[in-house]
Amino acid sequence: MEMTVSQRQTQGLAMTAKMQAALKILQMTAVDLSAYLAEEALENPCLEVSVPQALRAVPTGVAGSGAGSDFDAIAALASDKPSLYEHVLRQIALAFPNPRLARVAEAFAEALEPTGWLGAAPETVAAAARVPLSVAEAVLARLQQFEPAGLFARGLAECLRLQAEDRGMLTWELSVILDNLDMVAAGRIDALADLCDGTPQDVRNALRSIRGLDPKPGLAFAATEPPILPPDLRVIRKDGTWAVELNRSSLPAIKITEPPETGRDAAARTFAARARSRAQWLARAVERRHSTLLAAAVCLVRRQTDYLDSGPRHLRPLSTEDVAGELGLHASTISRAVQHRMIETPRGTVPLRAFFSRAFTPGSGEDGPSQDALIALVGDIVAKENPARPLSDAAIVTQAKAAGFTLARRTVAKYRDVLGIPSSYDRRHTARLSA
C-alpha cells in the first residue's frame, strides 16, 4: 500500500469563544444579563454594573447593592430548573458529535414550541440550515427519540404515537386510532371500531390508554410562576404612528473605569490591560444585544400595526425568516433575540413572540389569514353566543364562513381546545347548572 501526503484547502465557519459569548448575551433576559454582568464585575476591576431597582438582587460589592448582605443574589436570579431549550441542547451535545448535524439539530431546537411540538416544517428548517431535506428529516428522526418521549412531534397524533411507541404499547389498532383522531373528536366510535376490526369497547379501552399519555411534554419544563418584572420594550403612539423604545429602566448599566495603578509590575499591567479590553468588549456586546432586539421589535410592530390597532383577529402571517430577511440577519439570531422578551402595548404587556403567527394556509405568505387570527375569530364567535343555546362546531364553521373564512369542523374543535373552550354539550350543561 502506497501512502501519500497532500494538502487541501477548504472553507468553514468556526465559532470563536467571543462569538459564542455574544450569542449567549443576545438571548439573555434582563435578569440573566444582570446576573451575568454582576459576576463579571466581581472579577474585573475595570467594570462597574448598576442594576435597576426592579432587579435589586445583585451580589455584594457591585454598584447598587447593599453592603454586608449574606443574600446569594446570583443563586436567586438563576433559574431553579433547566428550560426545555437547555434540556434539548444537552441531549444534542451527546447525540450529535458531528458539528454539521449538531447545527441542524440546534435549528430544530430553536423551532420548538413551549408544548414540545415542532413549530416549523422540516423543509423550513432544512432551508435555514442549508442542508438537503433528507438530512434534516434524518436529524429529526433522531431528535424524536429524545427524552421525554413526544418532543419534536409535528402534531398531536405524532406526539402520542412517539410516546406509545416508547412505552411499547403501539399496536396496529392504536395506530389506526391515532391516524383518525378527528373521528374521535366527532364521536364516531362505531365507525372507528370498524376501521380497527374491533368493537366500540375496544376503541374506548384504547382511548383510556391514550389519555394516560402527555399531549404537551414540553410543559413539564415550564418554571413556576415567574416574578413580575418590567417589560423589555414599550410601543406607544406618536404623531399617528407606532414608536418602539427599549425600557432602559429594566436594563443594567455598565461603566468602564480606569484600572488601578500597577507601578512597574509587568504581570499586573498585563492583567489590567486584559481586564479593560474585556470590559470594553462586554459593553459593545450588550449594546449589540439591545440594538438587535430593538431592530427586531421595530420590524414586528411595523408588520403588525393592524394587530395593535384592532386586536388579535388582525394578526398577519409572519415568521422569524421574514424578519431575518428584512434585517439581513439569520433566523436563529432573531429567534434568540425575541425569546422570553416582553413588550408593553396599549393592549397589555405581551410576549414579543405574540407578533409572530403561522399562515393558516401554508405557502400563502402574508396574503392569507394567520392561525392566531382564526383562533381569535373562534373565540369571538363563542363569546357572543347565547349561553343557553351554545353554538355547535358546525354552527361556528357557518359563522366563520359568513365572516369570509373557511374552516373545517375539526379545525374549530382544535382551536376550541387551544382556547380552553369546552364542547357545546359541556357549555350547555354548565349554563344549566349556573341557571
Automatic annotation (TrEMBL):
Residue span(s) of domain RNA polymerase sigma factor 54 DNA-binding: 271-428
Any single Pfam family the record assigns to this protein: Sigma54_AID
Record keywords, A-Z: DNA-binding, DNA-directed RNA polymerase, Nucleotidyltransferase, Sigma factor, Transcription, Transcription regulation, Transferase
Domain RNA polymerase sigma factor 54 core-binding: 75-257
Highest taxon, organism lineage: Bacteria
Protein purpose: Sigma factors are initiation factors that promote the attachment of RNA polymerase to specific initiation sites and are then released.
Membership in a protein family: Belongs to the sigma-54 factor family.
PANTHER family named among the record's database cross-references: RNA POLYMERASE SIGMA-54 FACTOR
Protein name, per record: RNA polymerase sigma-54 factor
Species: Rhodovulum visakhapatnamense
Lineage: Bacteria, Pseudomonadati, Pseudomonadota, Alphaproteobacteria, Rhodobacterales
Gene symbol of the encoding locus: rpoN
